[in-house]
């Protein structure tokens, strides 16, 4: 079976800064892959390259059959298949939760307002926020806003979801509700790549964990890798980086 996501020897530089130094990994359908590593190790850059928010210097990236590294990539076609959620929720403050979700459906997907509303209510219910449909972002907690942002992504029916530290801006008491939504998606078979600093969460939800260090994958394995780190870098990261 073709992997949903496949990176092969990806290099990325920002000027003289060589941020990704030969990153290769793959994600199969329904797999949940967690990327961990200390700040600056290249985790966000790797994720952003998968959605063509950054272009690579060399190597190849295939996502849902799209050759993402190719200059001729149909970016809109890629974005129809990939959902990405960041640390900041990026909701429009002047739109309700519902309107934040219907916007992309009526514009990008050209859905009728009635159909868009139906899909939006469905995904809001899915993240446990059906009763907040008419609330504005400022009337929602950070955790609720992040759940709306996830629902907005889900409404586009992506083949794969990318999450970049989606709980790191949240107070600890709000992270659980967001992680629970991601766990639900995992149990439903959504293919996901998530950058996280929540080690217990990564251990619980990920089929594969990738430890990045200075732009390279230093260790890769299942959750047991966290109990028995092989490299001094991972050992140190787990010791300090919680
Ligand atoms: N757009 C950019 N321009 C220049 N340098 C960048 C840019 N984005 C990231 N970097 C640098 O690349 C390195 C890796 O960043 P990043 O991928 O965000 O790491 P992580 O997500 O693991 O913390 C850092 O040194 C960061 O400062
Ligand atoms: Mg980052």
TrEMBL record:
Domain ABC transporter, chain residue ranges per copy: 5-239
Stored CDD domains: ABC_HisP_GlnQ
Gene3D superfamilies attached to this UniProt entry: P-loop containing nucleotide triphosphate hydrolases (3.40.50.300)
An example molecular function term from Gene Ontology annotations: ATP hydrolysis activity
Record's bilayer topology term: Peripheral membrane protein
Any one annotated GO CC term: plasma membrane
Keywords annotated in UniProt: Amino-acid transport, ATP-binding, Cell membrane, Membrane, Nucleotide-binding, Transport
Pfam families referenced in this protein's UniProt entry, alphabetically: ABC_tran
Subcellular location, record wording: Cell membrane
PANTHER family linked: AMINO ACID IMPORT ATP-BINDING PROTEIN (PTHR43166), GLUTAMATE_ASPARTATE IMPORT ATP-BINDING PROTEIN GLTL (PTHR43166:SF9)
Family per record: Belongs to the ABC transporter superfamily.
Name of the featured protein: Amino acid ABC transporter ATP-binding protein
Upper taxonomic lineage: Bacteria, Pseudomonadati, Pseudomonadota, Betaproteobacteria, Burkholderiales
